[in-house]
Amino acid sequence: MFFVAGAKSRTGSGGGNERRSIYQKFREVDILDKKKTVTALKPGEDRAILLGLGMILSSVMMYFVLGITILRSYADSVWTEEGVCVVLNSTVTADMNCSYNCGSDCWRVSKYPCLQVYVSVNNTGRVSRLSHNEETQDTSSECFYVPRCQKDSLAMHVMIMNISERLKANQQVPCYYDPSEQQEAVLLTRLYDHSIVFHSLLWPSCMLLGGALIIVMVKLTQYLSRLSEEIGKIKR
Question: Where does the chain cross the membrane (predicted)?
Answer without folding.
Answer: 48-71, 196-218
